[in-house]
C-alpha cells in the first residue's frame, strides 16, 4: 500500500470516529484534530505522535 493510499484510508477511518484529518504536512505526517484542537500526527507506518498541548 502506498503512503497516499494509507493516508486516504486512515482519513476515512478518522472521520467515522468524528476526528478531522488535515492535509499531510511537509514532514510527511498526517495531522488529526478533535474538537477543534490538534490531537496527533500520524506517520506513514501508523505511529501516532500526540501533541502535548
UniProtKB/TrEMBL annotation:
It comes from the Bacteria. This is Uncharacterized protein. The lineage of its organism: Bacteria, Bacillati, Bacillota, Clostridia, Eubacteriales.
Amino acid at each position: 500500500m502506498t503512503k497516499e493510499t494509507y493516508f486516504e484510508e486512515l482519513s476515512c477511518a478518522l472521520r467515522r470516529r468524528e476526528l478531522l484529518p488535515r492535509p499531510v504536512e511537509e514532514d510527511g505526517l498526517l495531522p488529526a484534530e478533535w474538537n477543534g484542537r490538534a490531537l496527533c500526527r500520524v506517520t506513514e507506518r501508523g505511529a501516532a505522535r500526540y501533541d502535548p498541548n
